[in-house]
Amino acid sequence: MPAFAGMTVERLSGQTPAAATSFSVDRAFIASQHRAMSSTPPITQNPDIRFLGRLLGDVIRVYGGEALFRRIEYIRSASVDRARGIVGSHEIDSGLGALTLDDTLAFVRGFMLFSMLANLAEDRQGIAAEPGADVAAALDRLEKEGISRAKVVEMLDRALIVPVLTAHPTEVRRKSMIDHRNKIAELMTLKDIGRTETVDGDLIDQAIYRQIALLWQTRPLRRERLYVADEVETALAYLRDIFLPTLPALYSRWQRALGHRPASFLKPGSWIGGDRDGNPFVTADSLRLALSRSAETVIGYYLRELHELGAELSISTELAEVTWEVEKLAEASGDKSSTRSDEPYRRAITGIYSRLSKTYEKLTGRLPARLPATDAEGGAYEDPAALRADLVEIAHALNRTGADSLAGNGALGRLIRAVETFGFHLATLDMRQNADVHERVVADLLRVAGVEADYGALDEPARVALLRSELASKRLLRTPFGAYADETLSELAIVEAAAEAHRRYGPAAITTYLISKAESVSDMLEVNILLKEAGLFVPGDPPTAAIMAVPLFETIGDLDRAPEVMTQWFALPEVAAITAARGHQEVMVGYSDSNKDGGYLTSVWSLHEASSALKPVFAKANSAIQLFHGRGGAVGRGGGSSFAAILAQPHGTVQGRIRITEQGEVIAAKYGTRESAAANLEAMASATLLATLEEDALQPKDAKRFFAAMDEISANAFKAYRGLVYDTEGFRTFFRQMTPIAEIADLKIGSRPASRTKSDRIEDLRAIPWVFSWAQARVMLPGWYGVGHGLKGFKDIGLLREMLEAWPFFQSTLANLEMVLAKSDMDIAERYVALVEDEAMGRDIFGRIRDGWQRTQEALLSVTRQTRLLQKNPSLDQSIRLRLPYIEPLNLLQIELLKRHRAGEDDPRVREGIQLSINAIATALRNSG
């Protein structure tokens, strides 16, 4: 375990500040931790962690002072010694009692930064990388199974893979902290290739030290709550700096592997600025802002690339032939300079730059940073296809004149690919709203129009009949003479802004309208009523819909009803016509709320069953199925390996089309650098290829047995989970007092409220704070509770082991379960029970939780034939155990700070310490939200 500065200091003594600013330590608790950790194998050191940890220690000593450094290093070494079994429990003095409040804040920052740097080091060493999770490996695997490259290319021509960035508030770090972290990653890459200096002449090690020093002096916490505009800018930074340069480079790699230029099947998506579900701050103006800033970003990128390309294509007609198409572009460019008269490619690029500058001004309302040198013929480009056509003419000319190496590859090839992939919109923006809102808005429209006085009182068949009648009519419901609710006007403004976006940026800017809490066909028809008011649904024979209404099935009950709802949906003739024209229909399945509703095992099994049951429904409707997986970062919200998760999908449900949400800390972890982004996008693409084209891993006879077993296991797990969370008297109070849920809600990490309503019911709490708060207390309850009851209650251990050996779904389910069990800690969690006011209730409920954890661990180890958690996954085991000595003191300090805060202590340092500890623990756990 690396010391902060490569040394271990002597034990401190005689440092006991006033009781009002010190912390007590439970030696019995420390001893229990020692016993738990002493039997595990030693941790293999990552040299990057040693190097970065030493620099961090140097920074703390220089900028915090020798005394602070010695206190922090003492706590660190004492905690590490306990974890490694170097000292006995009777010798342990944690050093926490010597900390003043000011020291506490500095200590927490130090441990948080170490965890951040350790994450970086592990990512660089490929700890999170998965073997075979790249397209080249997938192609080789498919070829060995008799699946040709031609078949892969055919599939990719109709494929769509979309990582969708959301603003779900689970990223506790400020963007400034992430930026410094990414700069360190870039510098470490230079160090890898043997460089000792940067291009600016700075020594690499000194430059890394400087970035760590900046991290130490950068405020970790946000002072103000984020606004939607802030979330838009954060997402744009990733899209601009990572996705724009990385995806074209990946396509070049994939083209070489395929021996064919594939279609642009992988594109980014976003919810930021369009997701209104529970967020009153997302409005029509938010939608316009997100789209305008996206256009500004992507077209600005094209302009910069064109400028560089113009400098590169210095081909002279005196030395090479030029086609008449390029000559035509050159003549239309307005570039009459005699110095470039023999350089038609440069002149053609100048003309394209001029037209694209006009496009930029037209779509953004402002001038580009670098004004065009000429005024080309043709005006602004009508759409991305027109821009691409001009670029392709240049590429074709280079090919025909023998310069093919300059055409398909290099800067020109990457720019053409970028235009195909990102258009003028950068990332397709989804709209999302709750079905209850749609019902109220449609009821308001129908009432004011005199069509139906009480739409809410109608049963489902009557609603469907009325809505279909309205969709068949060319008459609009809204009248300028009507008086509408503010909610109605706001929702109509949103769809009008979407129609405006289609006219301005093209139909790819917004393709999907997601319906949260979707339970029926009428929920989907209501969205089309709203789209019709903006001209995005047009009645006719057949009707057309420019934006697809997509149901989000979230709860266990919703998932059970999903096949029936979609069967009824496809049975409507107008829907069948629209689906046939589009070729596919999307369904979104929610991991977070289904988990909160029914627990981890029942959630993942219900998602699997719903997906399987939807497959024949779509086949009968002659529609391709496109599943949108609403995954979070934590296992309790669908987190874990995307590669394994895609491979674990029911056979035949991927079909080359899949969308997956990426949010919060996951965005920074996966897409913080180009290298990590490339690896994760590769994994998503390769898993989709394999899931689509490989034969089913399960034989029908095995599937029948395995599915029946999962039904029984899930039922028992569901009963146990619901019994604890929803049927136990006082559990709601226990949860809110034991965990820092109230303090998490106070963090400035997102623009939307933590709860859907003012109620304190668990049903109304958003899944993110539900999972986040259990992670902080090291319980991780949403990721495992009930699983032990399900597995232990199933008597055929041989069948369970057979399922683990043969079934990717079961493998992925248990792998994620094992990870979350390894990150949880019941001894630390028990310390949080002291925060519960009713001691008897706290002991009783926590006793059930501890018993459930022990039952789940025993069952998992039995099925996997292990003697301890992660025995068969040493890299993940080492990664987690590396952090444990750094998390334990943070938890102990957080508990003491919570006690003082809840007792009414108003020192602002107490509140800041709580927020810093939340930040630090989340950073160390990585996927806590």
3D architecture notes:
- It holds the Pfam family PEPcase.
- Its cofactor is Mg(2+).
- The active site is at 168, 596.
- Keywords: Carbon dioxide fixation, Lyase, Magnesium.
- InterPro entries: PEP_COase, PEP_COase_bac/pln-type, PEP_COase_Lys_AS, PEPCASE_His_AS, Pyrv/PenolPyrv_kinase-like_dom.
- By secondary structure, the protein is mostly helical.
- The strands form two sheets. A nine-stranded parallel beta sheet has the order 3-2-1-11-10-9-8-5-4.
- Strand 6 (537-538) and strand 7 (544-545) form a beta hairpin.
- The longest helix has 31 residues, at 228-258.
- The chain starts with 26 loop residues before the first helix and ends with a helix.
- The model is unreliable at 5-38 (pLDDT under 50).
List the helices and strands and how they pair.
Layout: H1 27-37, H2 47-64, H3 66-84, H4 101-124, H5 135-144, H6 149-156, E1 160-166, H7 175-192, H8 204-216, H9 228-258, E2 269-270, H10 284-312, H11 324-332, H12 344-364, H13 384-400, H14 410-422, E3 428-429, E4 431-434, H15 435-448, H16 460-472, H17 486-505, E5 512-516, H18 521-533, E6 537-538, E7 544-545, E8 548-553, H19 556-571, H20 573-582, E9 584-590, H21 591-598, H22 600-620, E10 624-630, H23 642-647, E11 657-663, H24 665-671, H25 674-693, H26 700-725, H27 731-738, H28 741-745, H29 767-776, H30 787-792, H31 797-806, H32 808-823, H33 826-832, H34 839-864, H35 874-902, H36 908-925
Parallel strand pairs: 1-2, 1-11, 2-3, 4-5, 5-8, 8-9, 9-10, 10-11
Antiparallel strand pairs: 6-7
Helix pairs in contact: 2-3, 2-4, 2-8, 3-4, 3-35, 4-35, 4-36, 5-25, 7-8, 9-10, 9-14, 9-25, 10-12, 10-14, 10-17, 11-12, 12-13, 13-14, 15-18, 16-18, 19-22, 21-22, 21-29, 31-32, 32-34, 35-36
